[in-house]
Amino acid sequence: MALKNSQYDTIMREYEQKQLHSQDVLNAHYQRVYDCIPEIRDLENAISHLSVQKARNLLEGDETALSSLKEEISMLRQKKSALLSSYGFPEDYLEPSYECTDCKDTGYIGSQKCHCFKKATIDLLYTQSNLKEILAKENFNTFSLAYYSENHIDPKTGRSSLSIMRDALAVSKEFVRTFGQEFRNLFLYGDTGVGKTFLSNCIAKELIDSAYSVIYFTAFELFDIFAKSRFDKDTLADTMYGYIFDCDLLIIDDLGTELTNSFIASQLFLCLNERLLKKRSTIISTNLSLESIVEIYSERIFSRITSNYTMLRLTGDDIRIKKKLMNMEEQTCYIEKNEI
Fold first, then answer.
1. Which H or E run includes 286?
2. Whether 124 contacts 215, CB under 8 Å
3. What is the pLDDT along the chain (340 residues), one digit of tens a residue?
4. What angle do CA 309, 311, 313 make, to 5 degrees?
5. 3-state secondary structure string, 151-210?
6. In this structure, are residues 179 and 302 in contact, taking their beta carbons and an 8 Å threshold?
7. How far apart are alpha carbons 99 and 106 in whole angstroms?
8. CA separation, residue 97 to residues 4, 11, 94, 103 (Å)
9. By CB atoms within 10 Å of each CB, which of 7, 11, 12, 95 scores lowest?
10. Residue 10 CA: distances (Å) to CA of 121, 124, 262
11. Measured between alpha carbons, how far is 40 from 49 in angstroms, rounded to an integer?
């Protein structure tokens, strides 16, 4: 599941920049402290000289050198901390600062990739697919209930589309709030154009901003990756295949728009089942009815979904059509106003 060389190099260059920035900040801190507290430089020199002297003593057979070194250096560092505090500097002012304290901005803990490397990889793939631009437009801050009406009544539940969407919005925000504490999955289904994808994007934006790894695919894109990984041995598809199973949140949009066959049905079951076993959250959106899920895929896929997902049925008018009509009305008003 290796990244392409160019992608790996891009990520590692970012880590190098972080390390250089950290060193620049630390150098500036030292210079400021030296200017304010000349004694600090003397203490730093004393610590360095002492370390060299004790190392020499240790090589010459002095078995007490190591323990005495720790004691004397500890005393010097305490003096250093006291001096910093007396001049109003934080005690850790002369310590390196890192964005990721686990790997110290190297991307690795030992020989293993750090969790931040995984996020950097996902972010890179998102950037390359321009998804971040979509999330900048579609998020909780731009979500509006104005497109949902009290007059549009769902015949199955007797509830208005506005009431239903209010509840769905509350569930989505709770999903974000408890993410990482509670294992949950969402299944958004119902009418075309009522905001299922928009709501998924809202959740994705919040979780990415909270440093969780999120992958979004339409069903067609998802199954295309499965096919390329299985049959074409595509390198990028292999990389994404692994992250599809391991990412913190997988969003599968427009399930049912792909050309379904036995391979797709088996891959969907594998994907959903593996993520359930690993307790990795998934959001699925579809225009299909629950009855169609059984017919198109299988009873066992339907069972996995209904048993392990919060089911949110959304109804209402097609928002995309509403927006077009509203834009046309605004343009008409603008033209009429200017003609007057």
1. strand 281-286
2. no
3. 456 687 889 999 999 999 999 999 999 999 999 999 988 888 888 878 777 776 676 666 666 666 666 777 778 788 888 888 899 998 888 889 999 999 999 999 999 999 999 889 888 877 766 677 899 899 999 999 988 989 989 888 899 999 999 999 999 999 999 999 999 999 999 988 899 999 999 999 999 888 788 889 999 999 999 999 888 878 778 878 888 998 899 999 999 998 889 999 999 999 999 999 999 999 999 999 999 999 999 999 999 999 999 999 999 888 877 676 666 555 555 455 565 5
4. 155
5. CCECCCCCCEHHHHHHHHHHHHHHHHHCECCECCCEEEEECCCCCHHHHHHHHHHHHHHC
6. no
7. 10
8. 30, 20, 9, 12
9. 95
10. 10, 9, 38
11. 14
Rounded distance between C-alpha atoms, residue 38 and residue 279, angstroms = 55
Q: How far apart are the first and last CA of the chain?
A: 64
Give the Cα separation of 224 and 220 in Å (integer). 6
Q: Which is it for strands 214-218 and 249-255: parallel, antiparallel or unpaired?
A: parallel
How many angstroms separate the CA atoms of 8 and 5, rounded? 5
Q: In Å, how far are 19, 40, 204, 281 from 117, measured between CA atoms?
A: 14, 36, 19, 20
Q: How far out from the chain centre does Cα 307 lie?
A: 26
122-129: long-range pairs with CB below 8 Å, 24+:
122/213, 122/214, 122/215, 122/243, 122/247, 123/208, 124/7, 124/10, 124/11, 125/7, 125/215, 125/240, 125/243, 126/208
Distance CA 127, CA 335 (A): 39
153 and 220 Cβ atoms separated by less than 8 Å = no
What's at 324, amino acid-wise? K
